[in-house]
Amino acid sequence: xxxxxxVIGGGHNGLVAAAYLARAGQRVCVLERSEVIGxxxxxxxxxxxWTVSAASYVCSLLHPQIIxxxxxxKHGYDAFVxxxxxFNALLDGRSMLLSRDRASNAKEIAQFSARDxxxxxxxxxxxxxxxxxxxxxxxxxxxxxxxxxxxxQRFFLGSAAEFAERYVETPVLQAAIATDGIIGTFAGPRxxxxxxxxxxxxxxxxxxxxxxWGYVRGGMGTISKAAAAAARQFGADIRTKATVAGxxxxxxxxxxARLDNGDEIEAGIVLSxxxxxxxxxxxxxxxxxxxxxxxxxxxxxxxxxxxKVNLALGELPVFAARPVREPGPVHNATLHIAPDVDYIQxxxxxxxxxxxxxxxxxxxxxxSPNDDTxxxxxxxxxxxxxxxxxxxxxxxxxxxxxxxxxxDSIVATLARYAPNVPNAIEGRQVFTPPDLEQRFGLPRxxxxxxxxxxxxxxxxxxxxxxxxxxxxxxxxxxxxxGCVSGIPGWRAARAAxxxxxxxxxxxx
Length: 508
Ligand SMILES: Cc1cc2nc3c(=O)[nH]c(=O)nc-3n(C[C@H](O)[C@H](O)[C@H](O)COP(=O)(O)OP(=O)(O)OC[C@H]3O[C@@H](n4cnc5c(N)ncnc54)[C@H](O)[C@@H]3O)c2cc1C
Fold this sequence. Notes:
Layout: E1 2-8, H1 12-23, E2 28-31, E3 43-44, E4 52-53, H2 64-69, E5 79-81, E6 86-89, E7 95-98, H3 102-110, H4 115-137, H5 150-157, H6 160-167, H7 171-178, H8 194-200, E8 214-216, H9 221-233, E9 237-239, E10 244-250, E11 253-259, E12 264-272, H10 276-283, H11 291-298, E13 306-313, H12 329-332, E14 334-337, H13 341-352, E15 361-365, E16 380-387, H14 400-415, H15 421-424, E17 425-431, H16 433-440, E18 471-473, H17 487-498
This protein binds flavin-adenine dinucleotide (FAD).
Flavin-adenine dinucleotide binds near residues 448 and 482.
C-alpha cells in the first residue's frame, strides 16, 4: 500500500496533522505504536468506573481555529472553564483563592497586603498583554523571536520570579504566579527564561478568554478522539500497535516507514509526531543527516523532572487552611503546594544536584466535582503534578522502590496541608520520568518534547520542514512547543502542503 502521507505517531498533533492533510485530499495513514491514540492527551480507565487524564489534564492552548476547522465539537470535544483559577494553602492557617472575579480577588489579596490588590491587577493586565502578543505568533509559519516587541522579549528572557516580585510583595501570591513559569521545566523560578514558560501558560485562547484554562469532559483523551474522528471522516487510516522502527529513504529523500515487524509502507511524504531525538537519531538513517545537525539534536535539552500521581479518593481533600468538605470553589481551582518562591527554588536546587526535591512543588486538579464522567458518585480524582524528580538521579537508576518513595513523599507533602488525603486513597497511579518515556514515548520523560526555554523557542525550535527532503516534524519539538494546542500538527500539515511535496492524487 502506498500513501500520499504517513504520520508516525498518533499523539494529538499527529492526528491534527493527519486531519488537515486528509481534508486537503491527501491519502493519509497514521502509525501509532501504542494501543491507544492520543500520546500524552489520553483518557484511561485504570479502575472500573474512573476516567483518568493520565498525563495532561487541563486545556487552554488548543487553537480555536483548529476546533472550528476540524469541527471538533461535532466530534465530541466539550470543555468548560476552570474558575476559580488557583488555591494556595499555607501551614499557618491562611490561604489565597484567586478567580476571575475582581472583587473576590481584592478581598483575598487584601488579607495579606492592601498594596498587592492594585499590584496584582497591573500584573494580570501586563502578562495578558505579553501573552496575547505571543498568541498572535503561536501559529506563525516562520516564527522569529525578534518579531516580538522589545518589552515582550525582555519578559521572556527574564525569570518568572522577578516578574512576580516586580508587582506584588506577598510571598504566596508571588509563588502562585511563578508556578506557571516552571511547569514541566528543569529550571527554578529564579532562572532566566522562565518568563517565557510563564507566558506560554497564559497564551491560550481555547475558551475565547486570554489565558483561561479548563477541563475537557471525559478527560483530555476526548481531544485526541475528536481529532481522530475528524481525520477518519476526511478519509485517513489510523493504525494502532504499529511501531515504526525506521524511516526509509532513497536518494536522500524520505520514502516511507518500516515497522518493527518488518513491514514497509511507502508514501510521498512522512511526518513524524515523535520527539526530535527519536525522529532524527533513531528513525532517520544516520547517513541522511549532516553531522552538525545530529550534534544539534544530541544537544537538545530535554531533562524530564515531573512525577504525575493520579489518586482515586473516597472523599474530597480537606485543606486545614480552608476546611470545606462539600464540592465548592476551592475544589474547582488549581491547588498549589508552593508557599513562596524560595520553596520552589529549593525544590529545584535539590534536583539540579540529581536528587528528588525533599519538599516538592505540587500542582493539583479535581475535575470530578464538575464532571460526572470522571469518578463514581461521591468519589473524586485528584491529579497531582509534582516537581522536581530528575530523570537522571545522582544515586543511580530509578527503581520500583524509588518510584514508591517519590509517590509517598508527594502524598506526605500534601497531607501536611490536607491531612485527610492518605486515608481517602482508594487507588494510585504513578508515572516517573522514565515511566513517561516508556509509556508515552516522551524523551527522557520531558513533557514538552524538550525545554521551552530561550534557545529552544521560536526559530530555535526545530522547523516543521526538516533537513531530509520529504520529512516533516509535526510534534511538540516544533514551534510553538508543548501543551495540547494542535498547532505543531497544523503548521506541519501546512508546510507539507505548501511545498507541494505530495503527489496530487493517491497512488492507491
Ligand atoms: C504528566 C503530563 C502533564 C501534562 N499536562 C498538560 C496539561 O495539563 N495541559 C497541556 O496542554 N499539556 C500538558 N502536558 C503536555 C502535553 O501533554 C504534551 O506537550 C502534548 O500532549 C504532546 O503532544 P504531541 O502530539 O506533540 O506528542 P505526544 O503526545 O508525545 O505524541 C507522540 C506520539 O508518537 C508516538 N510514537 C513515538 N514514536 C513512535 C514510533 N516509533 N512509532 C509509532 N508511534 C510513535 C507516541 O506513542 C505518541 O503517541 C502534559 C504532559 C505530561 C506528560
